């Protein structure tokens, strides 16, 4: 066993960073045995020195507000970043990687916006870049995509990757509550932030979708490439309608590769609420859990499930990356570098083949169904099922379509809104999984 310690610089000591410190201390003996050398924290960068962080098993003298100075120190082997945000985190990590220092980060926003800059810096410095904790917390997901399935062809990744929204939708499904009531419950239990916008509007899931798509399809995908639709418009009525169809509603990230209209391989990445059959493995994922369903040519269907957030689960993923980076430092080797050879174009949402569930409030008179069907035919959208109910002011049409280009479906909805016989469009939801 080497007597020389692998020296760590920790950037950030909040919820996740504090748990990283505790786990490094509590598991020090086992980690040393696994790595072949001890791990030593040589500095911790924080925004404010006087902030209360509870009892941490580290020397207070290790704390500093000079993150860049810590990164540049010669006695640092591995930089661990759990601060988040784009800047100054990007500057710190690019500096570390170019200097040949391994980086472990949980920064999904930075990876989704400019992961290419980090990968380029890692290649320039011959350094490792690990980010397992950036998606789905403690669930071992990114390494299987990057390494275990590297010999296979992944065709589709479908996931529930945000625990807050999954808790809200699961609560709405089980209790019949509306969105606001379920959000209040999530806030009281600590699942939702004071400002839940990043979660409920899909920004968090879109960043994770970009990272998953980049790994799965060997193509650089950024958050700007991801179609995003939040779930604030999902109502108790939508949930009731889904139940009648034997479905539930989840906020899904969906990344798939396939031919575009010209027959060329391309990638589609989107985040939106969708109905899925209760028979689908993702339908039973409740509470604040995450799950990702991967489909590959040879491996078939795989599912990864577990807690996707929280200080300790996320810290567990960070520690796994630290161990891998430390082993590589001692062995003088590197982790697999970025694989972006495919350079597949991004298929816009309008060209993606989707299905819609459309709930219409309509006039109660003859010819309504024929007029509505005519709109679908005009836009080359095939109807799978129609359910007509109610009389007079409660007359409704619920329509589920077959797969069609999303642009055709969107145009259909727009045309329906202009029909005099359609009083209002109560809701429009995409349908996944053959419901």
TrEMBL record:
CDD domains assigned: ACT_HSDH-Hom (cd04881)
Primary role: Catalyzes the conversion of L-aspartate-beta-semialdehyde (L-Asa) to L-homoserine (L-Hse), the third step in the biosynthesis of threonine and methionine from aspartate.
Residue intervals of the ACT domain: 357-430
Similarity annotation: Belongs to the homoserine dehydrogenase family.
Gene3D superfamilies documented for this protein: 3.30.70.260, Dihydrodipicolinate Reductase, domain 2, NAD(P)-binding Rossmann-like Domain
Protein name according to UniProt: Homoserine dehydrogenase
EC number: 1.1.1.3
Keyword terms of this UniProt record: Amino-acid biosynthesis, Methionine biosynthesis, NADP, Oxidoreductase, Sodium, Threonine biosynthesis
Enzyme class, spelled out: oxidoreductase
Catalytic activity: L-homoserine + NAD(+) = L-aspartate 4-semialdehyde + NADH + H(+); L-homoserine + NADP(+) = L-aspartate 4-semialdehyde + NADPH + H(+)
InterPro entries from the UniProt entry: ACT-like_dom_sf, ACT_dom, Asp/hSer_DH_NAD-bd, HDH, HDH_cat, HDH_CS, NAD(P)-bd_dom_sf
Domain of life: Bacteria
Pfam families, sorted: ACT, Homoserine_dh, NAD_binding_3
Cofactor requirement: a metal cation
The protein's annotated pathway: Amino-acid biosynthesis; L-threonine biosynthesis; L-threonine from L-aspartate: step 3/5; Amino-acid biosynthesis; L-methionine biosynthesis via de novo pathway; L-homoserine from L-aspartate: step 3/3
Originating species: Paractinoplanes deccanensis
């Amino acid at each position: 066993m080497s007597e020389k310690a692998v020296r760590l610089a920790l950037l950030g000591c909040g919820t996740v960073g504090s748990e990283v410190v505790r786990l490094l201390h509590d598991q020090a003996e086992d980690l040393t045995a696994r790595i072949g050398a001890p791990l030593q924290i040589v500095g911790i960068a924080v925004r404010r020195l006087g902030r209360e962080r509870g009892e941490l098993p580290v020397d207070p003298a290790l704390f500093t507000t000079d993150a860049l100075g810590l990164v540049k120190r010669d006695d640092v082997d591995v930089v661990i970043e759990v601060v988040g945000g784009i800047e100054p985190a990007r500057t710190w990590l690019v500096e570390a990687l170019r200097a040949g220092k391994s980086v472990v980060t949980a920064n999904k926003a930075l990876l989704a916006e400019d992961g290419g800059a980090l990968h380029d810096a890692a290649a320039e410095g011959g350094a490792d870049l690990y980010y397992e904790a950036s998606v789905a917390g403690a669930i071992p997901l990114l390494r299987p995509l990057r390494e275990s399935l590297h010999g296979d062809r992944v065709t589709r990744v479908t996931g529930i990757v945000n625990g807050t929204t999954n808790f809200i939708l699961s609560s709405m499904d089980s209790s019949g509550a509306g969105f606001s009531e379920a959000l209040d419950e999530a806030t009281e239990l600590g699942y939702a932030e004071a400002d839940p916008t990043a979660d409920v509007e899909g920004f968090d899931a879109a960043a994770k979708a970009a990272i998953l798509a980049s790994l799965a399809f060997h193509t650089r995908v950024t958050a700007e490439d991801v179609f995003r639709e939040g779930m604030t418009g999902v109502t108790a009525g939508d949930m009731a309608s889904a139940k009648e169809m034997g479905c539930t509603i989840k906020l899904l990230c969906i990344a798939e590769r396939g031919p575009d209209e010209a027959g060329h391989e391309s990638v589609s990445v989107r985040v939106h609420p969708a109905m899925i059959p209760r028979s689908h493995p993702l339908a039973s994922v409740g509470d604040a859990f995450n799950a990702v369903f991967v489909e590959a040519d040879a491996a078939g269907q795989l599912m990864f499930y577990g807690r996707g957030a929280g200080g300790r689960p996320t810290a567990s993923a960070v520690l796994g990356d630290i161990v891998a980076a430390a082993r590589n430092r001692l062995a003088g080797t590197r982790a697999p570098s970025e694989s972006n050879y495919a350079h597949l174009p991004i298929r816009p949402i309008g060209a993606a083949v989707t299905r819609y569930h459309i709930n219409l409030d309509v006039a109660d008179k003859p010819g309504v169904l024929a007029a509505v069907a005519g709109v679908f035919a005009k836009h080359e959208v095939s109807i799978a099922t129609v359910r007509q109910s109610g009389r007079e002011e409660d007359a409704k049409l619920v329509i589920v379509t077959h797969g069609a280009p999303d642009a055709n479906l969107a145009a259909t909805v727009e045309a329906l809104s202009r029909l005099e016989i359609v009083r209002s469009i109560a809701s429009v939801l995409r349908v996944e999984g053959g419901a």
